[in-house]
Specification:
Number of strands: 35
Shape: globular
């Protein structure tokens, strides 16, 4: 009897500890069922190429010169998070604390055995168009983020390595497995070096991953250290070098003329500044431009699948919505905005990009705009997407050209594609984060009409040729060029003062022309500036940039010589400031680096929280809140048209809980936002600046300072330090302000008028 009672109690305890799985989770579908749920424009059709059990967790695809199809797989995604919540679920309690955290070290260690990459050769043995045989070419590689055919084999992006696989004896087995390069950084599985993509210049380009150390390889003459940009390699392993711009997720896309797009989670396409890295490095005195920027302002998407319930529940959770709204609305909303853009491709003259979290592929037209390209929605798709699925498990993450000219879609088919740490822990506990890890699909998208690739225009062909060899000998410099060719000429001409001056006078107003001319003008900046001063034309911006280079060098004699000739314009102002900067500071003020509050300070401020919460319940004085915001907060924040957007814009604070805003005020370093890290710069002259990075380049950094001003400094003339996890916003406002004053500021921020 006692044993029966004990058994019943144990069963009851086990039932109580179990975390039930919700009944609203979307269910997987067979490939045939999923194929019926695609929405496509007229004139396109989609078919299955491969699926589970042949492949699972596919991350890339390519075809070699023999027409053989290869797929790479990335195993272990979110496994550490699953192990972490498996352990948590033993408690039988849901973790409701609002935060974003990584799995425990124990869970990460346990997940290592299941975290690896695989490369497979796929075969269609019965000729029905669907692969039915998989031959493993390599297994237990580091996680694979893309493959490309090269030199009779396959190159694999699998940080910390780039690996070359080859079947040298024709038996369909890879007997060559060589590490071409090693030393790349590793980190969370959401990204690594990725998407090897052939450029029109014959180099193989890779998306950047986590920061690493020295890159070595058996065919490299010496180790190479890469900056935080994308990079390219020679397929034989003989060279590796940085390139301008970087993908913030995975993948890149080239136009036929060699111009490049990357992407970030919230922007479908970033246009890479058309000034290759090698030119930027020619003039160490010149400040480089921003190396990539959004090619479109359109960040909306129009999915047709319902958001996964975890997304809807997170949006409806006021505290979690406020937590993610601090980053952006797209991060907080359940759907409707790009949150995971990746895997772009230029196909049939248009731009395509995956949005895996919302089960769709977006399409845009590529439009020439002077020296740059822009993306705009295709007519008829203003409020719909090119390809969308009602199957919530469809997650396209990579696109590729097929040998027949079709588009291959790599579908990481599973229930949840998002990184587990973005999901509230109590929802992780209920839904799980690895359901479907045994699945994966490749789809082939076909257009029913024939499409003939148009030839490059004479301008495009010349720009592409000049980027490869800078040979201008056969080009008549009559200066009647299209904008993109004029920009490339400024780079290819080198230090030819008279030709650069003519370019500046005619094309100096074009975007990036000032930077391009500066790249070619190393050691002739003064002569070029003086030449332009006598006949300005459209060279005002070029002159200002040259004056900035001369001023930054800090040679008083050189600056004075220029001031004797340059008498008007922005260049004059810059030179005068530069001359003033050559004089020693009358007094040097040592500014200590900001530090995080001590535990004692945090404890004291925590004690003030109840008083402010009580004040929040009283009728606010919005006018006092406005005045306090303008006088105290407006130097770094903007709201209701007041202030400067140095830190995050606060116009949407009405959507956030007042308790969350209060913690931002009292504890600004508690949740410092990505992209707003505090940077401290100390110049050789002795000036000290604290600000937020506005732009970064190989030779310079531009800080946005409190009050909205910007300051660019050359790296070689300054000590630059990023202070992580410490907000630029001063701590201690809780000491300086009364509870009712803080409450009035919050009320002003949350008001809509």
């Amino acid at each position: 009897m006692h044993r029966l009672v004990l058994t019943s109690l144990l069963l009851a305890a086990a039932t109580f500890a179990e975390i039930p799985r919700p009944d609203d989770a979307p269910k997987p579908l067979s490939p045939a069922e999923s194929a019926k749920l695609f929405q496509l424009p007229t004139g396109y059709q989609i078919r299955l190429l491969a699926s589970e059990p042949l492949i699972n967790e596919p991350s890339g695809i390519c075809w070699d010169a023999k027409g053989r199809c290869f797929v790479c797989e990335l195993h272990g995604y979110n496994v550490e998070g699953q192990y972490d919540i498996d352990e948590l679920n033993k408690s039988g309690r849901l973790d409701l604390e609002v935060r974003r955290i990584q799995a425990s070290e124990e869970a990460k260690k346990k997940a290592e055995a299941e975290t690896y990459g695989t490369v497979k050769l796929l075969r269609d043995t019965d000729g029905d168009g669907v692969m039915d045989k998989a031959i493993v070419w390599a297994d237990r590689l580091p996680p694979c983020y893309g493959i490309a055919a090269a030199n009779g084999g396959i190159i694999v992006a699998c940080a910390p390595h780039i690996v070359f696989l080859k079947d040298s004896d024709g038996d369909d087995q890879a007997d060559v497995n060589e590490k071409l390069f090693t030393g790349f950084g590793t980190g969370n599985l959401e990204r690594g070096i990725n998407a090897p993509t052939w450029g029109p210049d014959g180099w193989l380009y890779f998306g950047r991953g986590w920061a690493g150390g020295e890159i070595t390889g058996p065919h490299l003459a010496k180790p190479v250290t890469l900056p935080a940009t994308d990079f390219r390699i020679r397929a034989d392993g003989s060279a590796i070098e940085p390139v301008s711009g970087s993908t913030k997720t995975m993948g890149m896309a080239f136009t036929d003329s060699g111009e490049r797009f990357t992407c970030t989670t919230t922007h479908p396409g970033l246009y890479v500044t058309p000034i290759p890295w090698r030119y930027l490095m020619r003039n160490p005195d010149a400040a480089a431009p921003v190396l990539d920027s959004p090619a479109s302002d359109d960040t909306r998407v129009y999915p047709i699948a319902k958001p996964h319930p975890w997304r809807t529940k997170r949006e409806q959770h006021a505290e979690y919505f406020a937590f993610y709204r601090k980053i952006s609305l797209s991060d907080a909303a359940a759907s409707g905005y790009f949150t995971s853009a990746c895997g772009p491709l230029v196909w049939r003259g248009q731009y395509f990009v995956c949005e895996p979290a919302q089960n769709l592929i977006h399409r845009a037209d590529i439009v020439r705009d002077g020296t740059r390209l822009r993306l705009q929605r295709v007519k008829g798709e203003e409020q719909r997407e090119f390809l969308a699925s009602r199957d919530a498990w469809f997650h396209p993450m990579s696109l590729a050209h097929t040998p027949e000219g079709h588009m291959a879609i790599v579908d990481f088919y599973r229930e949840i594609i998002e990184d587990y740490s973005a999901i509230p822990r109590h929802l992780q506990q209920q839904y799980g984060v690895i359901n479907g890890r045994d699945r994966g699909r490749i789809w082939i998208l076909e257009a029913k009409d024939k499409w003939q690739k148009p030839p490059l225009s004479a301008t495009e062909a010349k720009v592409l040729q000049l980027r490869q060899d800078d040979d201008t000998s056969g080009l008549r410099l009559d200066f009647g060029f299209a904008p993109q060719l004029a920009l490339q000429l400024a780079l290819s001409l080198g230090p030819r003062k008279d030709d650069l001056a003519t370019l500046a006078r005619i094309y100096g107003h074009l975007r990036w022309m000032d930077s391009a001319i500066a790249c070619s003008a190393h050691n002739i900046e003064k002569d070029l500036l003086l030449s332009l001063a006598s006949d300005v034309g459209k060279s005002e911006q070029v002159m200002a940039n040259l004056a900035g280079i001369i001023a930054a060098r800090g040679d008083a004699k050189e600056i004075t010589e220029c001031l004797s000739v340059v008498k008007i314009g922005k260049a004059l102002d810059i030179l005068q400031l530069g001359l003033e900067d050559t004089k020693p500071l009358a007094t040097k003020t040592e500014v200590p680096a900001p530090t995080a509050p001590t535990a004692e300070q945090n404890t004291l401020w925590e004690k003030r929280v109840p008083d402010v919460l009580a004040a929040l319940k009283q009728k606010p004085n919005l006018e006092e809140g406005r005045m306090l915001f303008q006088g105290i907060c407006g130097a770094c924040h903007k709201s209701h048209g007041i202030g400067f957007a140095v830190g995050p814009d606060l116009d949407a604070e009405f959507q956030r809980a007042p308790e969350v805003i209060l913690r931002d005020i009292l504890f600004p370093s508690e949740a410092a936002r990505p992209g707003y890290e505090t940077v401290m710069v100390k110049t050789q002259r002795g000036e000290i600046f604290l600000g937020i990075t506005a732009s970064d380049s190989p030779t310079s950094i531009t800080l946005r300072l409190p009050g909205g001003a910007e300051r660019t400094v050359l790296r070689k003339r300054a000590d630059i330090r990023t202070i992580r996890n410490v907000s630029l916003m001063p701590a201690g406002l809780g000491d300086a302000l009364k509870p009712e004053q803080i409450a009035n500021i919050i009320a002003f921020l949350r008001s809509r008028s």
